[in-house]
Amino acid sequence: MKPKMKGILTLSLIAITFIWIGMVLGISFLEAPLKFTAPGITTKLGVGIGQVVFQALNKVELTLSLVVIICLLILKTTTQIWVLYGIALVILGLQSLYLLPILDDRVDSILSGITPSPSYHHVAFILFELAKILVLLSAGITLTKSKLLKES
């Protein structure tokens, strides 16, 4: 691959990584808690909005993860970078396939007027979000310092 193309692809991967981090921070740690402070927002309305927003975020994250995988395959990056992104992808997979369906069921219960029993799933989701941000941040910084940029 031409060095200029490698540089463009590397910069794109870095940008995607930090955009992904920003989206998770903005939705999970800003929008989600703040919506409940708005005047007139009931628990039912708040969780209903949250469900729509998190489903949309998940679709965007899955799309970004596919782009990340393609970039990593083309760039032939180091094992360290693969491992960092791999951890983020595993976390996203666990959230998508395990936690979000459970949380969606809880929202559906609340919207039906049923108060679900307490569970650890919401806290687990938040902890996974924190872990995902940290590994993506580490991946982005590692990639920024990598020789991939220096070669282009």
Task: Describe the model.
The chain contains five helices and no strands. The chain is mostly helical. The longest helix is centred in the middle third of the chain and has 33 residues, at 43-75. Helix 1 packs antiparallel against helix 2 and helix 3 packs antiparallel against helix 4.
How many angstroms separate the termini? 10 Å
Helical content (DSSP H or I, runs of 4+): over 70%
Strand content: under 5%
- SSE pattern, N- to C-terminal: HHHHH
From the spread of the alpha carbons, the general shape counts as elongated
What are the main properties of this structure?
about 150 residues; mainly alpha; elongated
List the helices and strands and how they pair.
Layout: H1 3-34, H2 43-75, H3 79-111, H4 121-145, H5 147-151
Concise summary:
By secondary structure, this protein is mostly helical.
